[in-house]
Amino acid sequence: MALPTPTAVIGAFFTGEDRQAIEPVYRDLVYRELDGVLAAVPNHDLAIQWDCAVEFAVIETHAHPGGSTPWWTGDVREGLVARAADAIDRVPTDVEVGVRLCYGDVSERHFVEPRDAANLTHFANELTDATTRPITWIHLPVPIERDDDAYFAPLEELAIGDAELYLGLVHREDGVAGAARRIEAAGRHVEEFGVATECGIGRAPQDATEDIFRTHVVVAAGR
Q1: Which CATH architecture has domain 2-222?
Q2: Is 48 helix (H, G, I), strand (E, B) or coil?
Q3: What is the pLDDT of residues 77-101, one digit of tens each?
Q4: DSSP assignment string, 125-193
Q5: pTM to 2 decimals?
Q6: Contact status, residue 120 vs residue 78, Cβ threshold 8 Å
Q7: How far is the C-alpha of 82 from the C-alpha of 67, rounded, in Å?
Q8: Residue ranges per domain, the chain?
């Protein structure tokens, strides 16, 4: 079950001082929904994924005019990490929990193109340190045009403990060949990782789903 973090929803749909008042109310409602799922599904059958997307809009643009601004005082990234860690820690330790770090997907485009994987790496490391329970997996996006060492080099600093790393380097536009190029580049900087699409499948054209699944099968077999 994938859920957007409360931060992502508040940051995307509300503005100004309203966010300070709405955040605790909405957060409690999301956690109540989570508790309902936990009560209905056996823990060993359940995995929860928290999606962090608006977080990276704030990280990348808060210092620019018209950018996504925080609604709390203090360090911007510390506030984002603390909120994401709180959501992760709401999941019992015998339930798998993953985190998908994302730069958004509007008409299959990011709201900001990451210069490299540095902010993703820093956020993942800080989030791992901030949680009181282990994270099962962390997913990082890889833009379709990035098969260069400059993008992947920051992953050498990744420190996420026993969490599994998944790189979202499968794209429908260039299939197996494109994924292979990105896998080769990533492999020069991080030893072990799984593969996935960059931002799920839900926003792909309707007739593209089967091909995406077939690409996953071929690419995963090669891993």
Answers
A1: Alpha-Beta Barrel (3.20)
A2: strand
A3: 999 999 999 999 999 999 999 999 9
A4: HHHHHH-SS--SEEEEE--TT--SHHHHGGGGG---TTPEEEEEEE-TTTHHHHHHHHHHHHHTT-S--
A5: 0.93
A6: no
A7: 21
A8: 2-222
